[in-house]
Design the sequence.
């Protein structure tokens, strides 16, 4: 492939349990900014779709969740999924995070090392695995809260870790289709990077040959997919043709997600990988300073607002902070 279509991580989407519990975790404990309240655009059951990001709501910092307890569906963790979602923080902030997570009653292992990086591993209330990675290369703007100063704030995604039973075909997909290169490897882990590499441009593959495959449906407690960024509709279409031409035929048509357009491809290791455009953004339906303050529906759902909103768990969202 001559052209580099894929730019880095766009967002990560996970199915969590309760909506309020999720908001309290990401905004209160992790210190991400709630940037969008909307609903799942697919399926028949109304489910929130909550978006959290950094100060500037930048692509590559966006964690999105479907609080699936509402539908009573649980998922099964396993291979063929993104197992770990990793944020960057300053190397000097790791002690702060190890202590803060413990003090807040979050399950955490303290500071450990993997693939040459220092990390604090911890768990979301729905059982999802997360990490804070000490990485001073990440200069994106953090969201400051009453408890988290700028020097300790989460910058954005550092990487995601994909768990696979067989890693050879997953490597081929990441290298040949996505355009990544392998930059580090040990017995269990391989790191792949895009372009200039580093935070937001890294994917780790974890070899778990004896772990059964996890579920693929929407359901509480699993990462549903990782989205990688492409520039716009035209490049997304060219890239989709290229990927399908390589033999990865399990790719959807482009779908309108209101804030981006998305093509979903099932990768050989089982992980769903979305390729999302980067040229629309989150200020398309509310002013940048008011992101996340009210429940927004795409134009095609607006006529059904009362029916969609009625079953949703009532939530309290954090008040907007002055910049
Ligand atoms: Fe997505």
Sequence:
């Amino acid at each position: 492939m001559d052209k580099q279509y894929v730019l880095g991580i766009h967002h990560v989407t996970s199915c969590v349990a309760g909506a309020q519990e999720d908001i309290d975790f990401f905004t209160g404990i992790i210190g991400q900014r709630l940037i969008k309240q909307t609903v799942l655009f697919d399926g028949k059951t109304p489910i929130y779709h909550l978006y959290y990001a950094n100060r500037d709501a930048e692509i590559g910092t966006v964690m999105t969740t479907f609080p699936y307890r509402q539908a009573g569906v649980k998922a099964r963790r396993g291979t063929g999924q993104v197992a770990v979602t990793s944020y960057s923080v300053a190397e000097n902030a790791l002690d702060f995070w190890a202590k803060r997570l413990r003090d807040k009653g979050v399950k955490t292992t303290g500071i450990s090392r993997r693939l040459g990086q220092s990390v604090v591993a911890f768990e979301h209330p729905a059982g999802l695995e997360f990490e804070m990675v000490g990485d001073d290369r990440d200069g994106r703007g953090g969201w400051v809260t009453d408890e988290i100063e700028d020097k300790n704030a989460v910058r954005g995604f550092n990487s995601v870790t994909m768990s696979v039973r067989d890693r050879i075909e997953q490597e081929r997909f990441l290298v040949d289709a996505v355009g990544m290169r392998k930059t580090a490897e040990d017995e269990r882990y391989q790191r792949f990077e895009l372009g200039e590499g580093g935070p937001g441009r890294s994917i780790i593959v974890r070899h778990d040959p004896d772990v059964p495959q996890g579920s693929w449906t929407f359901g509480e407690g699993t990462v549903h997919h990782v989205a990688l960024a492409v520039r716009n509709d035209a490049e997304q279409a060219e890239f989709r043709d290229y990927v399908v031409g390589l033999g990865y035929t399990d790719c959807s048509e482009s779908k309108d997600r209101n804030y981006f357009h998305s093509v979903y491809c099932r990768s050989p290791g089982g992980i769903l990988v979305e390729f999302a455009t980067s040229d629309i953004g989150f200020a398309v339906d509310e002013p940048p300073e008011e992101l996340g303050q009210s429940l927004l529906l795409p134009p095609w759902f607006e006529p059904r607002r009362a029916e969609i909103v009625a079953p949703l768990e009532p939530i309290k969202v954090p008040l907007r902070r002055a910049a």
